[in-house]
Structures are given as C-alpha cells and as structure tokens.
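Narrative of accomplishments. A recurring question from our advisory board has been how the design workflow behaves on a single, concrete structure rather than in aggregate. To address it, we present the structure tokens for one chain from the evaluation set, followed by the sequence designed for it. No filtering or post-editing was applied between the two.
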C-alpha cells in the first residue's frame, strides 16, 4: 500500500529535521606548548594549523608559546597541556625523577643549539681563552658536554641573559646561539660572526621533540598520532611555502619580523635538520641515537647509570611517517 501525499510529506519533513538537529562530529581538543616565542623553528606546527591539516585530521589544536620563565615539563606533568616541545636531555632527567613523560617524535634530526663567535674563532678548539655566555638551562645540558669534549673551564662561563650587548662590545666573548636568532642580530649590526652547530662536533640529542605523558598515551593515542602526522606534513609544507604559517607566527609574536623569519627558514634548509637532506622522513627517531644521548649523560654524571633511558621515548608514532622535503 502506497503512502499518501500527506504521509510522504510528513516523512520527508522528519528526515530533514533529523539532518538539521544531528550535530557535526566534534574535533578533539589537543594543546601543544612550544619551547619559546613563535619563530621559524616552530613553523611546521603553525603551518599545519594555518592550512587546516590539524582540522582535517579531526583535531582542534591550540598552540601555546613558551618563554624563559615557562617550564614545559612541569606544565606537562601537571596536565596543563597534552604535549610540549621538548629536549632529550630534560626528558631522560625527568625519567630519573620519576616523571611519566615520553618523547614521541623529533622535529629536527639535530639539536639547533650552537655558539656564535667573533670572526677570529676558526673552530671549537679556539674557545679555550674566550668568555662564553651560557643560559641557565644550558649550564645543565650542553655546557657540561662542551667542558668534557673541548676541555673548557667553568671560570670561562658567564650567564647569558639573552642580551647580546656583551658580545658586541667584547671581541673575546662567544655566546650561546640558535641559527635564526643571534646570527641574524649580528648581521643587522654588521658584526662579522661565525655560528657553530654543536651537532657538527658530535652533540647527540635530537631537536624540538614532541613530548607527552603516559596518561595522554593511554587516553588520547589516536589524537596524538594524528597530531604527529599532521605536524610533520606541516613541516614539509612550511619549507616549501611558509607564508600561511608565518602569518600565524607573527600574530602570536608581533616582534617577529619578516626578515628574521626568512633568515630562519634559510638556516633550516642549509643545516638540513628536518630530513637529513631527504634521506629520512621528518620526525624520525632511532634507539641508537637515544642510547648515544643516554651514554653522554651518564658519562658526565648528569644522570645515574641505572636510569632506564628507554622509557624516555617510543618509536610507535614515527614508524609510518613518510614526509620528506624531496
């Protein structure tokens, strides 16, 4: 028996009402705290947000800026954010303290920490009689490695307050530096300077890692994997066309200039830190590299020999990554 015209109209109305009242699937919220003010070294994350890669992956991502007074691991352990931009050394040291943190991906294949020197310094070996400005965090990470590697002395150290005037005023001073920051300031001042990446001398850690907690692993595993995947795709896109990401970087950090961002992007390309020059997917980590970092920490007494450094990372979230710059 065929339905009447009125009944067909009623059924159609019900169907339309159902489509209008069923809510769209909500995107899962995910928060990520960077290590510093927004800059080119964070570009892939801003790019993924600007171009909708996170949204396409089902995520509503909030990017939060770090800074000199913000302690990412503490905020992460307290559950204030889902993940932070971290550092291998601090994660292994956090494991020693019993914190349930774990690294799931590495943005850069080498840490971007370096030293900026005046033009007379031709190698790390020329630093033995220089005053070296080191940030508070650097005193318990890369500085002990430099002391052990090159025979530097504690009396050479002075605190780096992120003010470059002591460097500009004194040709006998070298300073902690990142490739897109201090060298750019020296360029603007027309001060001849050299930049030395510590990784070129064998400093083992990865750079700008994604660190989360065991709780997030247990409760947001799918969202975490989506965040890693979309972020690494964002990095590939950013190097190819950084404008979308740059707009968000400047919105978060209005002091960031176009010139400094462009300088930073060129340095990332030059140093080949994302994919080793196209040889490995962006985000990749290996157990061998983590072991090298752990051995360095133990050899200098920065962590106890019995620390289970394997708890500091998992390769689960990087094994299927495919994005490269080629």
């Amino acid at each position: 028996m065929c339905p009447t015209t009125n009944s067909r109209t009623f059924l159609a109305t019900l169907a339309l009402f159902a489509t209008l009242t069923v809510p769209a699937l909500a995107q899962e919220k995910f928060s990520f705290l960077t290590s510093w003010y927004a800059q080119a070294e964070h570009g892939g994350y801003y790019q993924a947000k600007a171009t909708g890669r996170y949204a396409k992956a089902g995520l509503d991502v909030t990017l939060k800026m770090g800074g000199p007074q913000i302690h990412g691991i503490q905020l992460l352990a307290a559950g204030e954010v889902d993940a932070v931009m971290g550092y291998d050394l601090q994660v292994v040291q956090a494991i020693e303290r019993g914190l349930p943190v774990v690294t799931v991906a590495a943005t850069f294949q080498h840490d971007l920490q370096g030293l900026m020197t005046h033009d007379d310094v031709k190698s790390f070996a020329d630093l033995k009689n220089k005053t070296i400005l080191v940030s508070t965090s650097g005193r318990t990470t890369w500085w002990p490695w430099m002391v052990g590697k090159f025979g530097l002395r504690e009396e050479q150290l002075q605190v780096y307050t992120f003010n470059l005037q002591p460097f500009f005023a004194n040709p006998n001073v070298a300073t902690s530096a990142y490739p897109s920051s201090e060298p750019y300031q020296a360029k603007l001042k027309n001060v001849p300077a050299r930049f030395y990446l510590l990784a070129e001398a064998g400093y083992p850690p990865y750079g700008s890692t994604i660190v989360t907690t065991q709780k997030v692993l247990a409760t947001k595993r799918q969202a975490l994997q989506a965040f890693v995947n979309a972020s690494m795709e964002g990095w590939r896109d950013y190097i190819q066309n950084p404008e979308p990401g740059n707009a968000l970087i400047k919105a978060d950090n209005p002091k960031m200039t176009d010139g400094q961002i462009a300088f930073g992007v060129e340095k990332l390309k030059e140093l080949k830190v994302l994919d080793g020059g196209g040889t490995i997917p962006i985000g990749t980590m290996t157990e061998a590299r983590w072991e090298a970092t752990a051995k360095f920490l133990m050899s200098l007494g920065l962590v106890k020999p019995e620390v289970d450094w394997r708890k500091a990372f998992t390769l689960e979230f990087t094994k299927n990554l495919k994005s490269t710059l080629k």
